[in-house]
Amino acid sequence: MSRPDPDRTGLPDTPDTADAPDTEPSAEAGAASSSRRFPTPRLLVPGLSWLVGTVLVTVFFGIGAWQRRWIADDGLIVLRTVKNLFAGNGPVFNAGERVEANTSTAWTYVNWFWTWVTDGQVEYVVLWVALVHSLLAIPIAMYGTARLYGRRWLPDSGSGRAAAGFTLLLPLGSIVYIALPPARDFATSGLENGLAIFWIACLWCLFLAWSRRDPARTDVAARASFLFLAFFAGLAPLIRPEITVLGALVLLVLFCAPIGWLMRVAMVVVAAVLPVGYQVFRMGYYAILVPNPAIAKDASGSKWGQGYLYLENLFSPYLLLLPVILAVLVGVVLVLTRVRDDVPDPVAGPDDAADEVEEGLPDILDPKPPRRRTVGERWKAFQASLQRPSTAVATVLAAGVLLSLYWTRQGGDFMHGRVLLAPMFILLLPVMVVPATLPDSLSSAVSRPRLAAAGFIVLVVGGTVWWGAAISQQTVTASPMEIGREGIVDERRFYVANMANPNPVTAEDYLDYPRMRAMMETIEEVRGKDGGIILPAGDFDHWYVAKLRRGLPEHLRGATTLYFLNLGMTGMNAPLDVRVVDQMGLAYPLAAHTERLQDGRIGHDKNLPNEWVVAESGGVSRGAGLPAYIEGIDVRRARAALKCPETQKRFISYKVPWDYGLFRDNLRKSLEFNSYRISRIPEYEILRCGLEPVPDTED
C-alpha cells in the first residue's frame, strides 16, 4: 500500500476526499479536521522552539558582530574598484590598467549597487551590507535544517495523529559558528565572508526544498523552482572561485536526477549563463582566467605543512575539537533514530497475509535464480534515489570536506580563521538545529532509545552553550602585535592596536596607521608636479621618492606611483589619479607573475624588489633622484628584463586601450598569461628571456 511521503512534501498527510461520497461527517472526522485547522501543541512546539532559538542566536551574533565592527585593509581594496566604477574608469583598481584586484566578483558589484542606491559613504555601505548578509545567513540556514528534520514531528502517515511526544528544535551548529571570534570579526570587515555564508545558506534551503519535492511533479512551478536552484548554484564562482566546489556538486546531483534531457539542457543554460558570460568577459578584458589575487597567491600551489599550522591556529585557542566531536556524535544519534522512508504499513489483515503466502507458493515450490539487474536498471535506480534529503546532506558534507582539504593544501591564509569559516559553516549545516523528541510514555521499545537520545542532545546543546560562553572572548596570542613564525595574525586586533581605535571603519580612520599621514603629505608634494615613484622608508615619518627620467611617453610624464604592501588603506586614501601598486601583486600583474617564495609568509609569499617598480614606472637609474638604498645597476637590469617579449605582451594585454581586436587577442592568450611566471631577480630574468646582459658600467 503506497502512502504520500511527508519527508518529501513537508506537509501532513491528508486523506483524498475528492471522490468520496457526500455523507455526514463523523465526530472523529470532525475532530481530525479541527486538528488540521488548529495545530495541536505537539505541532506548535517545534516551530516555537525553533523561533526562540533562532532569534536568540541571531541577536547574540548581531551584538557580537556590531561590537567588533570594522573594515579590514583588504576590505578597503574592493572599495577603490567601486570608486573607479563610479568615476567611469571601469572595474579596475588603477585607471588605465585592467586588473581585477578583487577575488569575489559578486561582492564588488553588490557593493557598487547598494552604494548607488543609497548614495552613502562607501565604507559604511559595505559595513552594513556585510553585516546584513552575515545575520541573514544564520536564520536561513537554521530554517533549512529545521525542514530537514520536519518528519520527526509531522503526523503519522495515514493516521492523521501527531507523533507521540514533543519535539524541540534546539540550536547547535549555529552556536558553534557564532561563538568563534573570527566569525564575528568577519561578519563585517568589508570582505565577502558574509555574502559567502548567505549564499551557502540560501543554496542549502533551495537544495533541501528540491530534495523533498515529489519527483512526479512536472508543473510550471516545480520546473521554475528547479531552474532557479540551478541558476543560484551556478553563481558559485562569482561568490568565490573555490566555492565552485559546492555549486558544482549540487549541479552534478541535479544533472544526474531523472529530469529528462530537455530539462538538463535548460539547467545547463541557466546555470552557466552568468558565470560563463563573465568568464568570457574576464578573459577578454583582464586577459587571465582568474582574479589577479589568485595568481598573486598561487591558489593552485601546495603548502600542506603551513595548512596544518593554520588548522591548529583555529582549533587550538578555542578547544574547537570538543564541540566538533559532540556535533558529530549528535549527527550519528540522529541517523540512528531517524524516521525511515521505508517503514512498512503497521498491520496487515489475515486475508492480506493469506494472499501473500499464496502468491509466494510458486516461488517456493519452483525457485528461480534472481535476475541480475542491467546497468541501465541500476542507473535508473540510482537516479531515483538522488532526490532525497539524505543526498543533500551528503553533498554539502562532501563539499565542506573538499574545501577544508583545499585550504589545508593551499596553506590557509595570513588572517586567523578567515578562509576556514565558509567550509566550517557548510559542515555545520546538517546540525544548525537538532531535534530532541520527548516521548509521552516509555511503554514502547522505540520510546526509551528516543528519550535517551533526546537527553543526550539536550546535554550536548547545554555543553555547547557553556563552551561558547567560555571561549567567545578568547584571543589567539597575548599580544595583538604578535605575528608568529607561521605568519598568521589576528587581523582585527592587529589594526585596532596599531591605531588605538576599537572600530576602524573608514579610510580616514586608517590615516592613524603608521606611515599613512606621512604618505598623504608626500603625495601632495609630488602629485600634479613632476610626479615620481613613492616608496616606503625604514621609519614611519617619511617616504622616499624616485624621480622620473626624461623622455618618457606623454601619458607617463608627471605620473605618480605609490608602492606599498597595504593596498587597501593606501588605495582608498590616495586620489584615483595616483597609481597604487603592491609588492605582492594583488593589483600589480608584474609582481603577481613572479614565482612564489617557498619560505615566504603565507598570503605574502611574493615580494617584488623596488628596482622593478622604479624601472617599470619610468624612474631614473642614477643620480640624486634615486633613493640611496636602491642600486642603479639593479634598476637598469630590471629595465632590460622588462623588454622580454612575453612580458611586453602581458603589458599590452592590460595597459593598451581596449578594443575588439585586443579583446579577441586576450581571449586567445589568457591561458598562457595565467601561467606566465618571471624571476624576481633581474639578472635571472634576463637569462631566462635570452636578453643581452647589462654591464655593470652601463649608464
Q: Layout of SSEs?
A:
Blueprint lengths: L5 H4 L17 H11 L3 H27 L5 H15 L17 H14 L3 H27 L17 E6 L1 H7 L1 H5 L7 H20 L7 H15 L1 H4 L4 H13 L4 H25 L6 H5 L7 H15 L2 H16 L13 H16 L9 H10 L4 H22 L10 H8 L4 E6 L8 H25 L19 H9 L16 H11 L5 E5 L6 E4 L13 E4 L3 H7 L5 E3 L7 H4 L17 H7 L15 H10 L3 H11 L4 H15 L7 H8 L10
Parallel strand pairs: 3-5, 5-6
Antiparallel strand pairs: 1-2, 3-4
Helix pairs in contact: 3-6, 3-7, 4-5, 4-24, 5-6, 6-9, 7-20, 7-21, 9-10, 9-19, 9-20, 10-12, 10-13, 12-19, 13-29, 15-19, 16-21, 19-20, 26-27, 27-30
Question: Keywords, please?
Answer:
699 residues, mainly alpha, four-stranded mixed sheet, two-stranded antiparallel sheet, 30 helices, 6 strands, 55% helix, disordered N terminus
Describe the model.
The structure is a single chain. It contains 30 helices and 6 strands. It is mostly helical and 699 residues long. α13 packs across α29 and α26 (610-616) crosses α27 (632-641). The longest helix is centred in the N-terminal third of the chain and has 27 residues, at 41-67. The chain starts with 5 loop residues before the first helix and ends in a 10-residue tail after the last helix. Residues 1-35, 155-163 and 341-350 have low confidence and may be disordered.
Query: Main sheet?
Result: 4 strands, mixed
The count of β-strands is 6
The level of helicity is: 55-70%
Quaternary organization: single chain
* Rg calc: 31 Å
Mean pLDDT, rounded to whole units?
A: 87
Distance between the termini: 94 Å
Total count of helical runs of at least 4 residues: 30
Apparent shape: globular
In spatial order, strands of the major sheet run 4-3-5-6
- Structural class of the secondary elements? mainly alpha
